[in-house]
Amino acid sequence: MSQATNTLTPPVLSKDDLLEHWQGHRSLTRKVIAAFPENEFFNFSIGGMRTFSEITKELLGIAAPGIEEIVTGKTASFQRDFGTHTSKEDFLKLWDKDSEKISSLWTQIPEERFQERIKAFGQYEGTVISSIQYYMDNEIHHRAQGYVYLRALGIEPPHFYDR
């Protein structure tokens, strides 16, 4: 609140703008997943890094479960069962399902909770907003690995701004 006028100062980004920004990143990451040839998605790596399917498992294990944890207050787990998901198409379907889940859960987070202190996944202390920012930053970091892989495979990755 502004002391001089006693009115609320609007945030730089609204809650809805932040979700739109994140979903834009998720859309771009989906395009990176889709750009991989099936075999290379599961088997290609450089310099001892994980395959992009393993990286995608991490991303799927953090974003939607993390938002669900924020909404429900129930500690989430990094583990997700991917045993029956053996094709790139399966991962794309999971990605789409989680993107929808994030949008649905997002509506249940009141703006005043964004500064609330939490312990994400029972381990990482911070605020709701710092946790959400980590989920986004982690995705961007790992998507960059996907860009390196695609270029090494001779595949032009999606433009970083094509969200």
Automatic annotation (TrEMBL):
<dbReference type="GO" id="GO:0046872">
    <property type="term" value="F:metal ion binding"/>
</dbReference>
<dbReference type="Pfam" id="PF05163">
    <property type="entry name" value="DinB"/>
</dbReference>
<feature type="binding site">
    <location>
        <position position="142"/>
    </location>
    <ligand>
        <name>a divalent metal cation</name>
    </ligand>
</feature>
<comment type="similarity">
    <text>Belongs to the DinB family.</text>
</comment>
<dbReference type="InterPro" id="IPR034660">
    <property type="entry name" value="DinB/YfiT-like"/>
</dbReference>
<dbReference type="InterPro" id="IPR007837">
    <property type="entry name" value="DinB"/>
</dbReference>
<keyword id="KW-0479">Metal-binding</keyword>
<protein>
    <submittedName>
        <fullName>Damage-inducible protein DinB</fullName>
    </submittedName>
</protein>
